[in-house]
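User: Reviewer 2 asked us to show a designed sequence for the structure in our supplementary figure. I'm pasting the structure tokens here. Could you produce the per-position amino acids so we can include them in the response letter?
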């Protein structure tokens, strides 16, 4: 047999002389990024020179505060599922963006922070350079799993590609690249690095068989989805049908199974079902509420799918643990399950009845639900809803029907007040083809309200509904109910929100009822040239917490 000639390696891409900054920007473009959300400053002047040079291929969207830039990148990452980047100066610039970076970490969102640095030779010398901060690299490393500093232009492209790869490998998440102000401008011959191959962990077929046997024999199987299931909607839907298993999604797992499917549930019905389930399939979720708040019956078995092997056993040893992306693992499970699955009658009638019972109880928060129904009626099925840490938001997490994955953005366990408006701006900027509606309280909206200027300047047609109760209402109600009405730090003084919006050039109006909200939304969604702000003055709203923090299963058994 004649030996085959070894295949020739592809010719390396031709090297071109460019600055470190140009190499980073060219690499972002080579990876399909089309925007950098940014706020400039002296340490990044040469990065902005490169952004100018490539501005026909990569847009720079500048904001009025670094948290706006980072939240916009987060919103864009959440709706596209693809890496997004933001750029800020060191020290205060980085720290101003840090709540958003922390939220990106908590949400496993692929956000790349490009962070400036003081002159290279002086890093770590505490000379008091402009924006110097002690051990910036160390601070960044506490915030994200993947970080690097560019020391010379020859490294810039590869380091950028390595960060972008790390952000999508295993458990996705944010990364950061630092570069000193003088290094950004240094030149060298650079070959722009193409995307590095992503490796999937091998699928454990024995574990798949074990999972299929357990689920196939289960009497009352249940599926719980988290953010890690957002790209496995088709698979979860098929599996739910095969098993007649209800699918619980709360916040990050909403929209994986269409809310119009009778098997699609959220809280509070999800807790009843958890209490009854004999086998639970958990897809891309920490299961924190289930394992910590509700507790687990010794007899119930859990099959876990997670991109991060560390996650499986943190709180409870699962019967089967599968590591990797949910989609491919579920495809294997779908192929194996028919061999083991019991014949199952439809659970749809039972679920329709049980959902109706809970809907009646949820009338306790009818004011919030009325507004949510108005939004759902006007927002097209692929429209995106952005939640906030506010009364109508808490209700939305359990009662807003979600029809498609990545159309309900809720900020994960950080729950940072004020994330909503700027995150929604990023979502709308990255998905100009679908409408985005953000809700906020008067408290949360004011965190990033100045980004209204960004919305106008970059013509972002976001619709924002601000529910104004003149208070940090959630805190105020707790002070009232639990702390003898000793109100402190919870009443607010607000601007005239309509005048505020109009002063920027936004469309703005004030309405008071759900019916009027529908009409206002119809006008707003027809206006695609720029942003709209709708203010809804409200009084104190009923507490949603009994439907969310429901306590352990023991209390369930007593009812
Ligand atoms: C960054 C951050 N700071 C503080 C909080 C605590 N917090 C939770 S809800 C809330 C008040 C929210 O007020 P508002 O946005 O007006 O919504 P409302 O409850 O009045 O509807 C506060 C201060 C938080 N979640 N995140
Ligand atoms: Mg409020």
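Assistant: Here is a per-position design you can include in the supplement:
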């Amino acid at each position: 047999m004649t030996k085959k000639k070894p295949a020739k390696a592809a010719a390396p891409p031709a090297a071109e002389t460019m600055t470190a900054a140009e190499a980073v920007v060219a690499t972002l473009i080579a990876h399909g990024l089309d925007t950098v959300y940014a706020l400039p400053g002296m340490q990044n002047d040469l990065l902005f020179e490169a952004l100018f040079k490539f501005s026909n291929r990569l847009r720079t969207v500048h904001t009025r505060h670094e948290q706006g830039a980072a939240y916009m990148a987060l919103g864009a990452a959440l709706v596209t599922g693809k890496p997004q980047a933001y750029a800020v100066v060191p020290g205060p610039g980085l720290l101003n963006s840090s709540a958003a970076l922390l939220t990106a970490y908590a949400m496993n969102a692929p956000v790349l922070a490009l962070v400036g640095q003081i002159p290279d030779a002086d890093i770590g010398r505490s000379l008091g350079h402009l924006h110097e901060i002690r051990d910036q690299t160390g601070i960044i490393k506490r915030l994200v799993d993947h970080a690097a500093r560019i020391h010379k232009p020859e490294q810039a492209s590869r380091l950028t590609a390595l960060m972008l790869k790390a952000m999508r490998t295993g458990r996705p998440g944010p990364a950061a690249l630092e570069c000193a102000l003088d290094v950004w401008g240094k030149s060298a011959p650079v070959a722009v690095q193409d995307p590095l191959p992503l490796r999937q962990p091998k699928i454990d077929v024995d574990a798949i068989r074990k999972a299929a046997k357990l689920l196939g024999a289960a009497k009352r199987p249940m599926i719980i989805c988290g953010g890690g299931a957002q790209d496995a909607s088709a698979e979860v839907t098929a599996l739910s049908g095969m098993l007649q298993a209800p699918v619980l999604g709360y916040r990050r797992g909403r929209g994986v199974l269409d809310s119009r499917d009778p098997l699609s549930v959220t809280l509070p019905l999800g807790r009843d079902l958890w209490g009854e389930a004999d086998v639970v399939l958990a897809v891309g979720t920490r299961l924190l509420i289930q394992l910590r708040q509700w507790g687990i019956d010794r007899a119930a078995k859990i099959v876990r799918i997670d991109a991060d092997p560390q996650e499986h056993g943190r709180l409870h040893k699962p019967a089967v643990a599968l590591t990797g992306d949910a989609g491919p693992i579920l495809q294997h499970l779908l192929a194996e399950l028919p061999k083991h699955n019991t014949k199952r009658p439809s659970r749809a009638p039972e679920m329709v009845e049980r959902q109706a019972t809970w809907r009646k109880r949820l009338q306790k928060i009818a004011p919030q639900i009325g507004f949510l129904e108005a939004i759902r009626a006007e927002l097209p099925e692929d429209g995106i809803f952005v939640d906030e840490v506010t009364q109508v938001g808490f209700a939305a997490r359990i009662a807003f029907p979600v029809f498609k994955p990545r159309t309900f953005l809720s900020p994960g366990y950080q729950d940072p007040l004020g994330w909503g408006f700027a995150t929604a701006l990023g979502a709308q900027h990255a998905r100009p083809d679908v409408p985005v509606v953000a809700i906020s309280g008067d408290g949360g909206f004011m965190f990033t309200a100045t980004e209204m200027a960004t919305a106008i300047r970059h013509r972002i047609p976001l619709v924002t509904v601000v529910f104004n109760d003149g208070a940090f209402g959630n805190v105020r109600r707790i002070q009232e109910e639990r702390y003898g009405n000793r109100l402190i730090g919870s009443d607010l003084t607000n601007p005239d929100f309509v005048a505020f919006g109009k002063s920027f050039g936004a469309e703005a109006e004030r309405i008071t009822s759900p019916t009027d909200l529908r009409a206002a939304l119809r006008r707003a969604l027809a206006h695609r040239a720029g942003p709209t702000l709708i203010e809804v003055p409200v009084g104190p709203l009923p507490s949603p917490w009994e439907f969310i923090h429901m306590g352990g299963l023991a209390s369930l058994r007593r009812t």
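For the response letter, you might also mention the following. The first strand starts at residue 16 and ends at 19. The chain is about 40% helix and 15% strand.
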